[in-house]
Each structure stands twice: as C-alpha cells, then as structure tokens.
Amino acid sequence: MKTFVLILTLLASSVLAQDITRGDGLRTRQFRTFAAVTYFVDPTGSDTNACTASGTSACATVAGVLTKFPKFIQDNITINVAAGTYPGFTMTNLVFSGNGIVRVNIAGVMGTFSPATGTATGTLTAASTGNATVDVLTDSTQAWTADNLRGRFFKITSGTGLNESRVVISNTATTVTVVRYGGTAPVAGSGYTIETPASVFNSTVTINGNVFGGSNNVIDLGRVDIASSSGSALSLTCASSGGGIRLGETRITTTSVGSTGFVNSGCTVSSNALGTLFGVYIQATSGLAVSVLSTSPTIFGLNQGSNGWVAVASGATSSVVQLRNVQTAAWQSFYVVATGAGGSVPALSFIDFIQGQTPTSFQSPRTYVSCTNPQPGITLLNSSLPELSDTAVEVVGCDTALSVGRGSLFQGTTFYCTTATTCVEVSNGGRYEPEGNSIISGVTNDYIIDGVTYPQTTIQSFSPRRVIGPNGSAVQLP
Description:
The protein has two domains: 114-195, Elongation Factor Tu (Ef-tu), domain 3; 199-476. It is mainly β. The protein has a twelve-stranded mixed β-sheet. The N and C termini lie far apart (95 Å). The chain is built from three helices and 48 strands. β15 and β16 form a beta hairpin. It is globular and about 75 Å long.
C-alpha cells in the first residue's frame, strides 16, 4: 500500500511540474513560450494543422494560428503569410513577459503590381529631387494611367539606390512622385519594379488589449495589404505603456462609407517592421484615412521611425488625418493627400494636441499636404507644435495652407505654400513663428492676421518683423 501511494505521489508531482496549459484539451496549449517559434499561413492549409510547416501543412488563416498562441509570450513568434487572400483577424489580450526584446512578427510577401497601362518594370531615364519632401522619377518609355500606381511600392532593382523602396504618392504617364529617399536616391539608369503586398486581408484587422510589458516588445505587420469593405481596415487599441505596433511595406484601405482606414487609440506606432521595412499607405473612400486619439494625453501617435507614410482620403467632406488629444507625435516623413471635391474640412488637423513635459512634442523633418480641390490644408486648434527644427512642411493646392487658431502655436524651419488662396491665417490668439521664411508661390494672400491681410514683404519691412492682431494673434518672421 505504501508503495502504491508513493507511486501516485510521484505521478502527481510529475504532472504538476509541467507548465499549466489552457485550451480545449489537456495541455493542447502551453501557458508560456519556451523558445522562438514560426507558424505558417497558406490558402491551401487548414486551421486543424499544427501550422509549423508551409504549404498544405500551414494554417488557412491567421486566426487559426492565434488559437495556438500561449497566454504569456516570452520568445519571438513569427507568422509567415503566403501570397493569397485571407479574412481579417483579432489579436487581443496577449501578454509579453520576456526580459529582453520579444516580438510577434506577421510577415507577408511582396508581388509585382499589374498596372492598368504601361509596365511594372523598366529603367529610369531621369530622376530629380523635389524641394524637400518628394522625389520625381521618370521613365520616358512608359504610358502609365494617371495615379494608377498610387499606394504601390517603387523598388530599385539595379544600379544606384539598389533595394530602396518607396511609396508612390502620384504618377503621370511617364513620371512617379515618391516619398523622398532617405537612403541612396536612384538616378537615370537605375532599374525598378513596381511592387504591392501579395498577402491580402479582406476585412478588418483588430489589435487591442495587449500588454507589452516593455518598450521594445512589439507586434510587426510587414508586407501585407489590409483591404476592408465594411468598417475600418486596421484598428489599434492600447491600454498599457510599453511597446507597440510596427508597420512596413503595408497597405491599409477601406471602401466602407464613412469608415476610417486606420484607427489608433493609445498605441505607439512606427515603421521599420521586421527590422528593415518602411513605407505605409492608408486610404479611405469617404471617411478619415487616419485617426489618432488618446483618452489621456500621454502617448505617441506615430513614432519617429514612421518613415514614408502616405495617407489619402477621397471623401468630399472628410479630413485625411486627425490627431486629437495626443501629447507627442513624431515622424520622418508624412504625406497627406486629399483627393475629394474640397470643402471646409482640413486635410490634416491637430486638435487638443498637448505639449508634453519635453520640448519635442512634435518632430517632423518632412510633411507634405496636397489638395486636389480647395479645402484647408493644416489646421491647429488648441495645439502646440514647437521646436520644429530641421523640418520642411509643404502644402500644395489647398485653400488656406495653414490655419493656426484658438491659442495654438506653429514653429518650423521652412514652410512651403504653393497654389493656395491664403498661405497662413492666424486667429483667436494663434501664433505663427517660423525659424525660416515661408516660401510662397501662386498665393493670393500671404498672411491673414485676425482678419487683416499682410504681404510677407510688408512684415519683413517691420522691425521687429512681427504683427500682432486685435485678438492677440501674431505672425513673427525671422
């Protein structure tokens, strides 16, 4: 009898020594990771598979892979998504508990884009740098359809600039305007291919409630296309401090009426997905392309690594990007394109954008805003954008390029106004104090200060170069 009890005790101890598991069956899912693991998703797979091999041994959906995740993630997890079309997914309540850098990488693949006219490959016949924000690349042998390449990725495949990839902002029959190259810019003779993510999610991707537990723990989405026809395409909600979401070579689009393409509530978001990928394209048909909202002003809307973001909205009465109640935002280059019928709604708006404890509440080396039809370009309401050193902000084709109102402040190195009714309007105590002169072209009114129009040359003739309006609004030029 004593021997029998001893055997039972040893068996019980052995079972209890195992990691606690959860799921539908005994020990079908571990309580935590023990080593890095790679899963696979493929259109030919099945969610009943273990999904640790590719092809028919893979899962059929990312949601299927997520059912195999442990509660606590202490090691890197990679999900390789093959070319194909898949349903969206929800990733929620993951807990990153490792001591070092822990990541969940969702990695798709790129494919060659098929343009409506012209070809996807060729050799540049010319390349020129725009004033400070864009590069214009030419292939005089092409016959592309105007703006058909917008939102695709222009990759250099040979010659100078090899492997550099940038989002296409717009195109004509023979030229493409791309996010300015931060690395080695291509030249005439460089070969190229126009690419697009071949791993496509055809409904909303939601990431929320995750506990990152450290500033370097992140979820990566790279080389994927999220295209929703019902609701937002990508929705992020973060309630805890720590890491965040990284995107790169990613397309985020919605055709749902009134829906926002990319919604970020409280998450730190940046580029550099999978460690090397940059470039994000976001588009909404009749709603906001990007909405960044925080319930408490303590987060980054977009991190400084957000290099090469392009946001487009074609709704007649929609902003393209709205940042509300955000303490700190930073990006290397952000391109805001309003292609709608115009109106009174600004393309890029900062609302209750609160200056934090540090002097760098907003860092933006390059910001480009373009309006196809007249509407306000950039609007600040109760917002402070100081310390914009080494920046270039360009607004093209908008009604009022920059509106600074209700106690707001705008500072910067260089501000370009092109083809606008008004370059800068300040009202209700707003202040415009650039570190460099505004570069104005094709503008009717240089400055409007509390309803009174001033040419830039007039303000420059004053000593000091400052005008204060009757409501306390001010323009001070260097």
